[in-house]
Amino acid sequence: MGGFYVEVSAGVWLVWVISWKAASFWRAKTTAEAPRSQYRLHFVVVVLGFMLTFGVVPWQFPRLWPLGPVLGWSMAGVTMAALVFTWWARIEMGRLWNGGVSRTAAHRVIDTGPFALVRHPIYTGLIAGVWAMALLQARPLALLGAVLFALGFTLKARLEERFLEAELPGYADYRKRVRMIVPFVI
Fold it and tell me: What is the spatial distance between Cα 51 and Cα 57, in angstroms, rounded to a whole number?
């Protein structure tokens, strides 16, 4: 029965990936951008973490714990809520969103909606969703993958922090008021 919850959550992820890619055209023109070489390693860490979490490796270890309905449905629900949270943030950003580290001509500090809770709500949602998937997988490599995924996005968020503070008036004040990824923590 454990595979069923994993399949449901993987289906939610698939819908998210397709919808996110379809909406990628909905953005304003970039006017300033951090060199991609500054965050290429972060991207590799995130992709490796994602692959390990989703079991896209030729070997698998046994499950560390049984996956019953309470944990299974709970983590499927966390996956759904986490990815909805990313969409809430994406909609709140509107055309200011960009997958890289950049600024548009109309860029401003957004401190409403999910941005009132954390400065990087898309990363928050993605990290929570990957951790839910790792707990569903209940395998050592999936847990390692979730750690790598979270590390990659935390490093990218720190790069964005430096970039936005230099490029965006008011961002330093926003940083003082709102946590980076985990509400009330970091």
Answer: 7
Would you mind telling me the total number of residues written for the chain in this entry? 186
Counting beta carbons within 10 angstroms of the beta carbon of residue 3, is it exposed (0 to 12), middle (13 to 18) or buried (19 or more)? exposed
- Dump pLDDT digits (tens) for 92-127: 999 999 888 888 888 899 999 999 999 999 999 999
User: Could you tell me where the DSSP H helices lie in 23-139?
Assistant: 40-53, 69-93, 121-137
What SS3 state is found at 54? Answer: coil
Phi and psi angles of residue 32, each rounded to the nearest 5 degrees, phi first: -145, 140
What are the backbone dihedrals phi and psi of residue 126, each rounded to the nearest 5 degrees, phi first? -65, -45
pTM of full prediction above 0.85: yes
- Tell me if 128 sits within 8 A of 82, measured CB to CB: yes
